[in-house]
Structures are given as structure tokens and as C-alpha cells.
Amino acid sequence: MTRPTPLLAVWLLGCGSPTLGPLEKVAGPPPVVDSGTPDSPAFIGERPELRDPLRFFRRASLDLTGHLPSPAQLDALHADPTTLDAHLADLHAHAGLEERMVHVLDEQWHLRFEALPVGPSDYGFDPELRYALARNMGEEPLRMMARVVSDDRSWDTIVQTDTTMATPLLTRVWPMEPVDVPEGEWAPTRWTDHRPAVGVLASNGFWWRYNTTAFNYNRTRAAAIARLVLCNDYLEFDIEFESPSLTDAEGTEEAIRTNASCVACHQTLDPLSSLFFGFWAYDLYDPLELSRYHPEREPLGPEYLQVDPAWFGTPVNSLSDLATVVPADRRFPACAVQTFSTAMWRRPTTEDDSTVQESLLAEFEANDRRVWSLLMALTRTRAYVGDLAAEPPDDARPRLLGPQQLARVLDQTLGFDWHHNGENQLDNDLTGLRVTLGGVDGEEVTAPKASPDANLALAWRAVSQAAGRHALDTLNTGDNPLLPGVSTDSTPDDPAFRDALAHAWLWLTATEATSQQLDNLTELWRVAGATHPREGWVAVVSALLQDPLVVTY
Amino acid sequence: MARRLSSPPLSRRQLISAASGLGVLGSIAGVPRFARAAGSDRRFIFVFASGGWDLTWGLVPMFDNDRVDTPTDGSAPATVGGHVIVDGPGRPAVKSWFERWGDRTAFLHGFEVRSVAHFNCRRILFTGEAASFGDDWPTLIASEGVGLDTALPHLIVSGPGYASSFPDLAARVGQDGQLGALLDLEMLSRRDTPLSALPSAAEDAVAAYLSNRSAVEQAAAHTAAGAHLYGSIGRHQDAIPDLEAAFAATDIGSAGTFTEQLQLACDVLQGGISRCALVKHNGFNDMTWDSHGGIEGQALHYQDLFEGLEVLMDELAVRRGPSGGALLDDTCVVVLSEMSRHPALNLTGGKDHWTWTSAMLVGSGVNGGHVAGAYDSDVFGMPIDPTTGLSTPSGHILQARHLGATLLALADIDPGPHFSVETPPVMSLLA
Amino acid sequence: MSLRPPVSRLLLVIMAMQSACAAPPAPPLPTPDHLPESTVVPSSTPDTGTIEPVEATDLWTAADVEASLTTLLGSDVPNGNDFIGLFRALTSEGDSRCPGDDLAFTTPESSCTSSTGWEYFGFASYLDDIEVRDGTDVHIVAIPQASFVITAPDGRTFSAGGGFVHEQDLDSEGAWTQEFAGTFIWTGDGYPWMKAGTQLGWSIQGTRPASGSTIRVHGPIAVGTNWVFVDTLDWDENRCDGVPEAVLRIRDDLGRWYDWSAGQDCGTCGAVTFSDASGTDHALGDVCLDLSDTMRFIDEANHFPAAG
Questions:
Q1: Does residue C59 sit in helix, strand or coil?
Q2: Which residues 22-61 of chain C have a CB within 8 Å of chain B?
Q3: Any bridge partners for residue C113, and if so which?
Q4: How close does chain C come to B142, measured CA to CA in Å?
Q5: Which of C127, C128, C118 is nearest to C149 (CA)?
Q6: What are the distances in angstroms from CA A20 to CA A132, A148, A323, A517, B425?
Q7: Residues of chain C contacting A8 with CB distance shorter than 8 Å
Q8: B290 in contact with C at a CB cutoff of 8 Å?
């Protein structure tokens, strides 16, 4: 393996430490380098012919922003399907992109985690801040990575920046510069404790999730980095050998260095682990120890592990050096491609995808490793189009709406949210329905639901009825985007009645309602509202929100 | 462990009606006591002692090992029900339990859960590995056999549940009783501004509408997989009323005691709602078994656990099972903990973590009275011959995955495809 | 034989007991207002939100290294007497209920406030005792779990996250060990090293026979924005006129570590070197630093005479 340019030379040349300044949103859809000709490796090719461009755009909008396309977008696309790519490009400017990327990444990074080492009582906060605190802490690195995507920066930035993201609450508990935004909102900030500028690799949110124990010596952290940044999962490989018990400390140490099966992993794992001792806490539950970076403890790594720091065979001096060697590792961009492919295809990649993965990687590199270009390329792949192709493979099928998408849809169409005592009920597992609705909790449930189950059906029913009941409040105020022009007094005899149903159907499903479908909805309204018309409206909204075309995409 | 990339096809689910026989039926005279369910029909109740039990205080006497700090409360080894256990003051329930059920109990001793962190140990215990993917044994069992015919194949009443390939097969009662609140729609009141549910007639109308909708979309689907998905959505939505009825007699609020949770587990197994259920025992007074200080607290935990197990066994013995005999004859109870405790006391009178532990199997399919595995004088697990359960120098050093393979075998599932390294089940534990 | 230096016993006590077991709640951080200014890097961010890229800098010079060492290992070295003294002083400001006459306290769920207006939150397992080990009296002064915030009525705070264990043989040899690890901040006056904020994880072994004291120090230490790793600090007051053998590593604010060693020949001067990623050493000049007074201070300031 070639050695990198000595970092001393880099510094002396005036390149300075590889920080890249602020993460700022840029205006306009980002440029995408032409993906080449059919002969070039970067050529993904044309998107397979679509049988339903509106449903496809709905899929892309939900995948990339968590939101439904607006009725205006659907109308425009319906009028001119050739504008599909332009509409897709416009999604980059959507306000929901960043939040959606947080959840997309979290499905694999598992950072929106409940069992953090500290909670609100550790800071003298009200217990009702539990959810907000946990989410703020877990999302800090995710928000930074999402901002890199929405900012259209190179993905290299995630391991090179000295900037992260924070809310005002977070800056009160972590050593960060204050942010001047309303509580609950995120803005760029910097750490104040002299941690190296290596982005997510120096993130509290990341290291609090992937912590270490006394004798683990940061190996868990190193393994997490390898899995998430290189798609190299040490734990994926079962190794069978006669080993000493874990309780035999000396025997275990000896095996790590002499047993071929152990050495295979530890020869790279331990040198990498030795880099993270600035995050070594002497008290694993004390917020003071956990929150701050400890530069003076960096040499403990080589001392405890008896190895020189290295990145997979490349010697490095300190954690700071990863800002250079990680992006230079060929696996880094390949893993980014794999990560976002998994996210968009809603399944792990397999060996059968290798050709497409190579093409995506080439396109990714050609576009300076900007994730948006990768996402656009992914929307052109056959695996993404799936069942919406004019000639789909028989094993292709729609995907299920996840809890974050459902929450955004409910907010978007009805202004509905579900909070209880400070907890977002669609986004937590202690009192809420996150996992039930198909989400991941990052600890026990590590993949979203791909198939429905009884629990999910129950949750859909509850959420849809709640949203339907909430919709009543806005029907009479004229502030109901889903059912415009009607009130609780409206009847099927009113021209606006059927129009409202048609509007709701189109918006929620991205398909035009047939006359029969509108008749069925009307009949539902009548039957359910037999005792009182208000119940008919609740029933209609509830039915719409549980419709197979709504809960799938 | 093999990674699965898609869920298995689901068969038509058979849901039980309200008159199916939930609740206690009274003793069943004349039923052969040792009737056994076929493996693929076998149900499972997992009882998880959370925090790491000290085996020397209840299940594995080590009084003759001077390297081990054993109880000093007057405990002594006792042969009860065919097993040598620890009988001591403060925990008479252990002895009385073995007197009644020892002959239906088998032990697996000396398998290692290779971590010292609870977080990792729980995952390794239940999935065989520390990797972030992998479904737990109850979910894998629930994904086959009779599990395919259940509405909630694996019900996590309390405790951990690991899912990556089959997140749709494991349902959670929820720490706040969310499942119950979903069934009766009390969930809608758990909002800063509470909301009310639809009247039943209106809800019926919605259900009928949705049933039609899924049928329409299923018929119109452009792919077989799409049709299957829409059909599955419809089936699950259609099944809600039956599920409500099935749980109508059962309070599944999460505030239930350990005993109440065990009874719920019996309910769902007997009602054909689940193939597997998991209940966590969090120690006496929810103190957990994690006795880093005051090891004598283990006596309280054992008493509490076995009092609950007594109720469980009684429930299983009197309830009618699907095979026509007692539910116990259709059910295997698995009692386990993610670690045990260090042989020696620490500075605060407790014991720290120890990676070698044991599991207890009771009931259907179990070779009652059998002990597989053992501990050496260092309290390491000894290698064993999995066909005999006897220690042998050339045998297998057991890890959590061997327990998993054994459980899969009990469920009539071939363990082979689930492990990428040779992992023989301990067949001596199977009747 | 172990292949690595023994992990400190204090570290084992703290981490092994707390690793992934039921988490004891820990006390709150001081609010940003209470953090000493030297631990907060003034932001270069103007109100517009623009953050300027960090300018390229040369390596430190030997003088820079000397300045950092002098600041950190000069006359105000972190020590047990200060830490325990401050702890005792502040806990004595309370009353018999809060924190209690034995000065130890456990208030994990919510703080207690004394009648004198002092607030105590967290864990402070303070003990001061004499044990008999193998026939020798051992004086133990310790706060093995120091995870607390003590707040004065005027808002000054004493925050700790870590632990302190000092054991002293009460025989003629006077062997003692100390493990002092964690993060410690006192926003009041009187203890500059705590006011600047100290993070350390060092072990000290010493003896105090009548013939002369010895000390060996090892581990990381940071005071404010000075970071040093003590590989070796080996002192015998009867050797080399009290000049210790020192092998130290010093860090700059860009994460580069510099090596300095001296005393092997009883001299106070040694070369400062920087080793880059290729393994090439760069000599940056000599630093002369007489640490004999520092070592005497460490000896004197970590002495806990037996109670009574």
C-alpha cells in the first residue's frame, strides 16, 4: 500500500489542517456532471420506461424529502411528464430534504437511540425533555451529514469538517459554540474543546452511541467506523477457532496477537482503535467526562493497545490524520454508494448489483462525490423504478411508508402531529409507535419493516383515526389542505364535496380517482356518518390514510 | 448467520374467535401428562432474567470449589426433582418448584456469551452474535411452523427483541402498553390534546371499505410481489376485529406484574395468537439481577423468579393446548440470563460479570432430568459432546449460538442454514 | 505476563463497575456561564455565521513546548491536597442533613440544598479511613466515584467527573499510591489549576522513607489548553539533586505531539522532537526545565497524614 504524502509536508506547504469551513445551504438545484456516454463506466443509462410517472415522482419525493408532491407539482407533471427530471432536481431545494436524510442515514447508522448514557435529570432538566434531548444528541452527526447532502458538498466533508450541527438545547449541554436559532431548530456550530476536525469521527452523538468499556479499548468504536464508513463489518465474519474464554484476559490478549484468526481482524482493528482515546472517559456515565474531548489522553491508545496508530496499514499520527486518509481509501466512496443504494432500493445490496454499483461509483466520483448526484443516478436505476416500470420484474413491489414519512404526510396534508408529554408518539418507542410503525430503534430493531403485520395495521388504524378526528377541527375553519372547500355541513349534494374527495385522493395517492372510487368514498361517508355527518368525515380521512395506495409508495 | 433478504411468504392466518378458550379452563382430567406437540407445532415461552444471575445462588451449587465465593446464608446443595440445586433460606420457591417440575426440566450449563457488557450480551444471547443484524431465536422460531398461522407470531411482552430480517414478525406489548392501547384505541387519548375514536359502526364501515380497496389493488397489481403485498395489507386489516376479540378478556397493559405478564404469554399461546412470547424478569422489586453490590440480593431474585415460574407452570398445566392435552405439553419454557456472575466477590460485596452462563429448558420436547454441560474449577464451561451432553476434552466449547441451535431444533427447524460456522445443537437436551 | 501497562486500579473500579450496568444518574454540567473562560475557545464566527478556515501554522518551536510545560508543570500542579481540601471545605459548608456529617453524598435524582444555601448533586463517595493490610496500617483518602456538582449560594460551582484514590502506608517506608482521573472544574478562586479546568488520568507511586522520597508519575494531564502525557516522571530526591528523569509528550492545538525527555544524565535539558507520520523525527531544539521543585511539590501536596 502506498504511503500518503507526509502530513508535515502538507502543513508546510500551507494547506493547513483540512477544515472546510462552514456548512451553508446553497441556492438552486446543484449541477450534475453529465454522466457520460453509454461506453463510459459512469453511464447509468436512461431510466426504464415508467408506467406511472406520477406515482414514481411520489416515490422519489417521499424517499428524498419525506413529503408528498404538492398538488401543483402533480398537476404540472401530469400535464407534461417530460418534466419529471426537472421536478426531481427541484427536490434538492425542498425544506424536507435535510430531515429526510437524517432518517435515511439513521436506518443504517442507528444513532437516534433511546439508551443514551445520560438523560435530562443529569442536567437538572425537566423529564419532559427526555425525547428532545435524546433526539438532539443522537441527531447531531446525522444533521451534519444531512447538511453536507443538502449543501451539496463532497461526501468527504463528513470526515473533514470542523463544523457540526446543534440546537440551542444541545449547546447548553455540550461544549459547542452557541447557535442563534429558535429552540428545536438546527444550525452549524463548532466544538470548543479542541477536538480534531474529522467530522463525524469526532462527534459526541456518534461516540455516545458507539461507546466502549474498560477492556474493549475503543474496538467497538473502530468496528463501527469500519462498518459505517467503509462498509467493512468486522462482526459479519464468523470465525471459528478454539479460543480462550473472554474471562481469561491474558489468554485473550495473547490470542489477539498470535492466533491467526484473531490477528486477521485485530491487526487493523487495534491500530484504528488506538486513535480514539481522546474520547476515553474515566466515568462512563458522567456527563462532564463524556461530553468533552480529552486531547491529553490520545497517547493512551498506543499504550493500552501496544500498537502504532494506523488506518488499515497506513501509519498515521493522530485522529486528525483521518481527514486525509479516509477519503483516500477507495472503500469510502464505494461505501457511500452502497449506503445510499440500500436506502433508495429499500434492501441491502448484493453481488448481483456489482455492475450497477460500479457505474454508480464512477458517476459519484465524476460528480466530486456529491450525494445529490448519486441520489439522482439512483432514481434512474432499474432497482429503484421497480414495480413502477412499464415492464417490471415480478418480484418488484412497492415499499411501505415509514413513520417519519407518515408523520410528514400527516403534517403536510392535515397539520396533524402527535405529541404527548414532550414525546413525539410517532418517533419514540418508550411511549410511542416508532418501531410498531416500521421504524428502527437502532438497538434491537435495525432494519425497517418491509412487510405489514397485525401490529402495523393496528397502528395505522389508530393514527388515521386520530388524524381524521383532528381534521374535523380544521374543516370548518377552511384550513384543511386535504379537503378544501368543504365543511362538516357539506353533503354529497354539494359540488365541492366530490371535488374535495378527488383532491384528497390525488394528493395522497398521486393517482386520479375513478368515478367508482369517489362513489365508494361517498358511500362510506354516508354509512359512517349515519348518526352524525362529522363521523363520516372522520371515517373518510381515516380510510384514505389507511388506503393501500397511501401506505405504500 | 445467513442474512435473509426478504420475508417468507405468509400463509393464510387462522385467527381464533372469542369463544376459542382463552382463560383458565380448570384441570383437565384424563389427558396424558406427557403428550407432546410435534416440533413445528411447539410453542415457546422465554423467561429472561435480566442483569445476570448468580448461578451459585440457585441453580449450580459450587460449595466444594474454594475458588468460588458461595452463599454464606446457610444454603446447601440439594437433590430435588432429579437435579442438584442450591436450597437456601429466603428462596424456598426454588426447591418447591423443582420438586414439582424437575423431572420436566433440563439444563444447559457452561455456554459463553462473549461480552461483558449487558447491551452486547443480550444481543449475543438471543441472536448468537454481536453484529447489528440478526433476528433472535423467538423470531426465527416464529417465522416457521405454526408461527406462520398466528397473528402476532412472536409477542414481546417485556424484554429485548432483535429483528432485522423479520421486523414484521415480532410484536411488542410496549413499555407503555402500546399494544393494548392500540387494540382498544385508548391510544388516541395519549396525546396532549386527546382525541376520540370512531364509533364502532363507522369503524366497521371503514374496515369494509378498506377490505374492498386492498382486494381491488391486489387484483390490479402489476407484479406478483405487489399483489402479495396488497393482499397482505388487506388480510392484516381484516384481522383486526378478530384480534380485538381474542384479546378482549386479557388486560395487556404494560403495568402488569411479572406473573401477570406470564399469564398474558399463556393467553396468546393458548389463543393461537402467537407461537413465541418473551417475558423479562427484572429481579425482585425491579432491582435487576445485576448484583455488583450485595450479592445476597440474589436470594430475593430467585424467590421472585421461581414464584412466578410456579404460576406459569400451573397455568400451562391447566390450560388446554392445541394438541388436546395441557398447554404445557405443547410448550417449551426457556429460562435464561445474558450472563452470570464472577466466582469471587468484589470490593462491595457483590459480584461482577461473568461470561459463562446456563439455561433451563422445561416442558414439551425437553429431555427432562437431563443436564448437558458443566463448569470446571475455574467456572469456565467445559467442552461437551452435543449428542450426549457429557464433558469431553475433544468436545465443543459452547457459545450462545449452540443454545440457539438447540432451540431451533426443538422447534423442528434445521439450524444449519442459520449459522455460517458449524453449530451443532445439543441434541441430548431433546426428548 | 501482561503485554500492556496495567490499567490503573481506579480506572478499573470506575469503568468496570459502571460499564453497561444500571447507569447511576450523573450530575449536571455547569452551564456555559460557569465555565472558566480559558476552556472556551472564543468563536471566530461573526454574527453573519461565516467561519473562517483555520490558517496554516508551522510546527511549534522549542520555546512553545517549554511554555506549555512550564505552565502545566510549574508551581501550580494538580494535586490531591487541593482536591480533597476543596472538597472537604465545600461539603463542610452544608449541614448535617445535606450533604451530611460524613461529607459523602448520593443525590442522583435531585440535588439537596443545605440550610446554608449550598447545593449538592450527584455522587461523592468520600472516605477517609485506615485499613490494616498484611499487618500494615494503610491510610486511605478517596472519592472513588466523584461525579458531582456543588454549587455555592453565589453560583460558583465545583464539578467533578472521575475519581480519586490515595493510599498511604503508615510505616517507615511510607509507600503510597494515588490514582487521580477525570475532569475537575472549580469556578471559584484559590485553585488556579481547577479554575482553568483540569482533565487528567494519572497514577503516582511514591515512597517517603526518612532517607528521602521517591515518586513515579504516569498518565495524561491537561490544565486549560495545555495537554501533556507523562510517559515517565521518575524522581528520587537523593538522586541528581532532585532532577527527575522525564519523558513527556506535549500536544499543540492542531493535534501534533512533541516529545521531550531529560534527566537521564541528571541534566535538565533535552531535545524536543516531532515525529511525522512517516516516522521521520524532526529536531526542534532544546528545552531546559528543572522539575526538581515540581517534584518536591508533588510529594508535599499529595501527603495525607493519618487522621487523629
A1: coil
A2: 22
A3: C119
A4: 30
A5: C118
A6: 29, 11, 11, 54, 55
A7: 59, 274, 276-277, 280, 282
A8: yes
CA–CA dist C66, C81 (Å, integer) = 26
Which residue do the cell numbers 472513588 mark? Answer: C144
- Tell me the domain boundaries of chain A: 98-202, 210-328, 403-551
A547–B210 CB contact, under 8 Å? yes
User: Is pLDDT above 90 for A168?
Assistant: yes
Residue A252 in grid coordinates = 485473550
Tell me whether residues C19 and B116 touch, CB distance under 8 A: yes
Whole-number Å distance between alpha carbons of C257 and A492: 78
| Cβ–Cβ < 8 Å for A433, A404 | no
Sign of the dihedral defined by the CA atoms of residues C72, C73, C74, C75, in that order: positive
SS3 state at B408: helix
B121, B292, B345, B355, best to mutate vs chain C, most C CBs in 10 Å:
B292
Contact B386, B426 (CB under 8 A): yes
Phi, psi of B88 (to 5 degrees): -155, 170
**Residue A476: predicted pLDDT:** 85
First to last CA, chain A: 45
Average pLDDT for chain C:
82
The answer to whether C304 and C84 are in contact (CB under 8 A) is yes
| pLDDT, tens digit, 9 for 90 and up, residues B360-395 | 999 999 999 999 999 999 999 999 999 999 999 999
Determine the Cα–Cα distance for residues A225 and A232; give it in Å rounded to an integer: 9
The predicted pLDDT at position A46 comes to 87
Cell numbers standing for residue C39: 476552556
Mean pLDDT value across residues C88-93: 95
Q: Where are the alpha helices (DSSP H) in chain C?
A: 9-18, 62-72, 80-91, 192-195, 292-301
**For residues B289 and B142, what is the distance between their CA atoms, to the nearest angstrom?**
28
Distance, CA of A142 to CA of A205 (rounded, Å): 8
pLDDT band at A336 (very low <50, low <70, confident <90, very high): very high
Which residues of B are less than 8 Å from A536 in CB distance? Answer: 202
Determine contact, residues A136/A112, Cβ cutoff 8 Å.
Answer: no
Q: DSSP secondary-structure letter at B323?
A: T
For A507-543, what is each residue's pLDDT tens digit? Answer: 999 999 999 999 999 999 999 999 898 999 999 999 9
Tell me, yes or no, if B412 comes closer than 8 A to chain C by beta carbon. no
Percentage of chain C surpassing pLDDT 70? Answer: 80
In this prediction the pTM is 0.89
- Provide the pLDDT for residue B19: 24
ipTM for this model: 0.90
3-state DSSP helix/strand/coil % of chain B, to nearest 5 = 35, 15, 50
How far is CA C206 from its chain centroid?
A: 16
Match domain B33-177+252-429 to its CATH number in 3.20.20.70, 3.40.980.20, 3.40.720.10, 3.90.850.10. Answer: 3.40.720.10
Distance of alpha carbon A252 from alpha carbon A263, whole angstroms: 12
Share of chain A above pLDDT 70, in %: 90
3-state secondary structure B190-254: CCCCCCCCCCHHHHHHHHHHHHHHHHHHHHHCCCHHHHHHHHHHHHHHHCHHHHHHHCCCCCCCC
Cβ contact (<8 Å) for C22 and B117? no
| Chain B contact probe: residue of C9, C10, C17, C145 with most B CBs at under 10 A | C17
Domain boundaries, given as residue ranges, for chain B: 33-177+252-429
Distance of CA A49 to the CA centre of its chain: 28
- Average pLDDT over all residues of chain B: 89
Nearest CA to A352 out of B5, C163, B290 is that of B5
Task: Kindly give the parts of chain B with pLDDT less than 70.
Answer: 1-37, 253-255
Q: For position A26, what pLDDT does the model report?
A: 44
Q: How far is residue C286's CA from residue C33's CA, in Å, rounded to a whole number?
A: 40
Residue A39 C-alpha cell reads as 461506453
